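Example 3.2
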Amino acid sequence: MSAPTHSHSGRCHCGAIAMELAFTQPAEDMQVRSCQCDFCTRQGSLTVSEAAGKAVITVAADQLTTYSFGSGTASFLICARCGVYAGVIMADGDKWLSIANARGLGIEAFRNRTGTPLTHDGEPTPDRLARRRTRWTPTEIRYTL
């Protein structure tokens, strides 16, 4: 497995949520996804992640709002100040996994990409968790005041 060598960074509109991403693949080779659930389509999400990569989320703790729905197995990260949907996190034992909303975070390398439409409606929870473990990015979360 290759070490992550392709770095990307982005932040919500006001800067309260920032993500630093490191992937093993260049942006043009990565799958960009467009979830077709009602929430993501309303947000215009365009998400990226890589299980061999690494993400660091830095967030002003007093500006973070989370939202969970459906199976309740993940939390959407939404800036309480500017309203941007920045990404999604999931606890996996004592670790975190995430996907980044490249559109919401303004990550330039993915700006002109078109997302592959995906639908996960009706996916059994064990299958959903297993899929995320193979696709989502290992993540460190840092809270600031």
